[in-house]
Amino acid sequence: MGKTGLVLEGGAMRGLWTAGVTDVMMEHGIMPDGLIGVSAGAAFGCNYKSRQIGRAIRYNMRFANDSRYSGIRSLLTSGDYFNAQFGYHVVPYKYDIFDTAAFEQNPLEFTIVCTDVETGQAVYHVIDHVDYDELEWLRASASMPLVSRVVEVQGHKLLDGGVSDSIPLQYFEEHGYQRNVVILTQPKGYQKAHNRLMPLMRLSLRKYPLMVKALDERHIMYNKQLDYVAQAEQEGRCLVIRPDEVIPIGHISHNAQQMHFIYLLGRMVGERYIERIIAFYEN
Questions:
Q1: C-alpha separations of 243 from 9, 45, 272 in Å
Q2: What is the CB-side half-sphere exposure of residue 242 using CA atoms within 13 A?
Q3: What whole-number distance in Å separates Cα of residue 15 and Cα of residue 88?
Q4: Residues 133-176: pLDDT tens digits?
Q5: DSSP helix/strand/coil, 43
Q6: How many other C-beta atoms can be found within 10 angstroms of the C-beta atom of residue 221?
Q7: pLDDT in tens, 184-235
Q8: What 3-state DSSP class applies to 2?
Q9: Considering Cα of 240, then 241, then 243, then 247, what sign does the dihedral take?
């Protein structure tokens, strides 16, 4: 019998909508065999393995206007809009404790997607324990071009996993996950357009031509993946959860109330889908 999986695409702060859905799933005791997360789907999805309901929205609201966490000051002083050291190596240990014991004891296989800037190809990494390097892998998955430095970890040079594999349903299916819930952060009918910031991307990443090529063609890859998901959904291999309309938040936000509103929208959809999710996994 195939394994059950949960596939979380990225979307920067739209990931708080996904966190609303996944918190409802955790509240109902739903624990698939594996989870694969991309970008924000990885950064917030780690809380699914540690079973920490509410953690993603809690720390994002708490530090929404804290310059130590994110902002222009961090970008100018460190090269990262979301401060690497504070966000990934201080907050989880000091301010909103990440339950490393629960994470490591949960048998759920947690896979994240990054993009190798030297090849422009996806790199898949399973995180089964928590230490400095593993948190750097997590950071790499969510490190958006232009507002993040290249993350160097264990011989890799990495950035945002969404550049190379935005919706890794096919990867998960090829690795034995035959019944997958896929949580998208764009509404039905969405098609990604060519990135208008490509001139800046080319300049910023000029040392990595294959990464530039991947960015230039990302919309093509993404829209093909939407077709793949639609086919899998039609065939009953996956259950797709998506927002009813465009989520009203940008890639970056410092508005805690807006964040909370987006999270609650996700919870509403999660509650609406919960019986279908349970039935789909149990079928």
A1: 13, 18, 11
A2: 17
A3: 17
A4: 999 999 999 999 988 999 999 999 999 999 999 999 999 999 99
A5: helix
A6: 17
A7: 999 999 999 999 999 999 999 999 999 999 999 999 999 999 999 999 999 9
A8: coil
A9: negative
